[in-house]
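Hey there, shall we discuss this one?
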Amino acid sequence: MIFDSRFSIFDWRYRAKYATERKLPIENRESKIENKIINISADMKSHTALPLLAALALLATACSSTITNIRERFSPTYQTVTVEAEQRAAFDASLAALKKMGYNITSSGAAQGKIEAISPIASTGGTQAQSRQTTASVRFGVAPGSGTAIQILFSEIVDNTTAGSREGFATKQPLSASSPLYAVFANYVANALKK
């Protein structure tokens, strides 16, 4: 027979004797347990509230910017330039402005009230070859007061031809309203209308 010291008779007698001496009344034991739980939860609340709120704020910000990016990608916002001119004069001024900016006109029609243009390809070269190109889409309408509302949208096409990626695939992303291309276009249109 193998003797295991964990189950010796002395050990059980010792445990039984001292366990009865250390027992407190049930009310005291429960109140101490409750006090420990309350103190722990109070500490947990004070230590986890601030990081939890910060994490929620960060999540909300990230979600709203992601939703805005998705919305802009599928339903981009045209920027409006209002001019005090007839639609045909605004069309000719926009055509001249895009040509002055270096765009090639791919489609245009004064009767349809639209211009489509694309810039030359700009390549970064090197081992991480990246080609960029911008497109311009212009629409014409009647301004709320008088004159013509020129609505324009610039989009950027980026072709990342890196090691291991598939050639010939690119991404197209509308440029935000803070892009300087909108201001340059508006200045060139204003200058063309003055002539």
